Amino acid sequence: xxxxxxxxxxxxxxxxxxxxxxxxxxxxxxxxxxxxxxxxxxxxxxxxxxxxxxxxxxxxxxxxxxxxxxxxxxxxxxxxxxxxxxxxxxxxxxxxxxxxxxxxxxxxxxxxxxxxxxxxxxxxxxxxxxxxxxxxxxxxxxxxxxxxxxxxxxxxxxxxxxxxxxxxxxxxxxxxxxxxxxxxxxxxxxxxxxxxxxxxxxxxxxxxxxxxxxxxxxxxxxxxxxxxxxxxxxxxxxxxxxxxxxxxxxxxxxxxxxxxxxxxxxxxxxxxxxxxxxxxxxxxxxxxxxxxxxxxxxxxxxxxxxxxxxxxxxxxxxxxxxxxxxxxxxxxxxxxxxxxxxxxxxxxxxxxxxxxxxxxxxxxxxxxxxxxxxxxxxxxxxxxxxxxxxxxxxxxxxxxxxxxxxxxxxxxxxx
Length: 415
Ligand SMILES: *Cc1c(COP(=O)(O)O)cnc(C)c1O
Ligand SMILES: [Zn+2]
Prior knowledge:
The chain has 415 residues and is of the alpha/beta class. It is 39% helix and 15% strand. It contains 17 helices and 13 strands. The protein has helices at 36-41, 44-47, 85-91, 111-123, 136-148, 162-170, 182-196, 208-214, 216-225, 240-254, 274-281, 307-319, 329-343, 353-356, 358-363, 385-389, 403-414; strands at residues 3-8, 14-15, 30-34, 81-83, 95-100, 128-132, 151-157, 174-178, 199-200, 231-235, 263-269, 323-327, 372-377. Helix 6 (162-170) links the parallel strand 7 and strand 8 (174-178). Bound molecules: pyridoxal-5'-phosphate (PLP) and zinc ion. Residues 8, 10-11, 13, 23, 25-26, 28 line the site of zinc ion.
């Protein structure tokens, strides 16, 4: 293992590599550090493409888990990267790619951070894990806990999509619905985790081991593209997914593999856009949002009580030379349709926000026709179908099993 310690991103204080959630001195975000010199000596980079393991754990030299036996996996990662000419043409982009994270075991990229964080919990001998979630992380934690024979406590806002709740209940997770926002769940979860010493797997920046799982997306993109694209477009709640991908590329550059870094685009919904608001106003710090109003439940995080998480993401976007943009619910539904119709991928509205942002970026003259652009499709439509049904009608008409009737209908449809 090459991970060495935790370091506070604000004050620099160092800690041993144990499950810890914030800096004791300044409450800052903790980050996992590695011995990159040792990795260079062992030529870890050149082994990247030849490892035979399946899924994201083939990158375990880049992850902070000591023993192979601790790894809890449902074979997350290794998701396809599609070059998508039809959709690209609509957006006026010649080098347009979709990274299809709906193909993870529980239908969202959250399987990556959860697999990494729960493996650390197992390594430390924990048998109960807890998470606050807007849905997908809860499904992932409940499923991975089931695999590892651990107990899972999941706190979600009561507005969470029903399909996600169903999956949590089925896998034996203890589901607690809160009449409030993701932030209310976050704050309660932190308190419960402290009081009962349960491992808090909440995949904001709270758990430094979770963010590490997100890095593996960068390694996969690097192997397929042979470097960094010009842009990576990412739906963001607090932003660890975006931060993790960027950190992954920084490591690849540090190891002399990638020769440049991508520019990061963070996408939020207009009805809950604390990071975009700060970006547009030029504020140095992100302030918490009020009540979210959007169908993009996966990124509806008002950051109440941990707005510093948003500031870290804002800083990373700026450092990368990227932008933050907000999209409205109509754009989201249109993009769900487009992704299905032109790429064959059924995404939840949150997951399609990356694609929804492209029109805006083009209007603003930010994207150029020849730029290479990777859109992250972060979560599956099958797990948020009740939301989508509110906008897209399933034809009500039912036919008798009669060839004539069927042909009559086809005649109308095929012209
Ligand atoms: C959680 C989630 C996000 C946001 O990721 P963060 O790392 O919390 O910023 C985006 N899309 C989907 C589908 C999610 O579930
Ligand atoms: Zn600190």
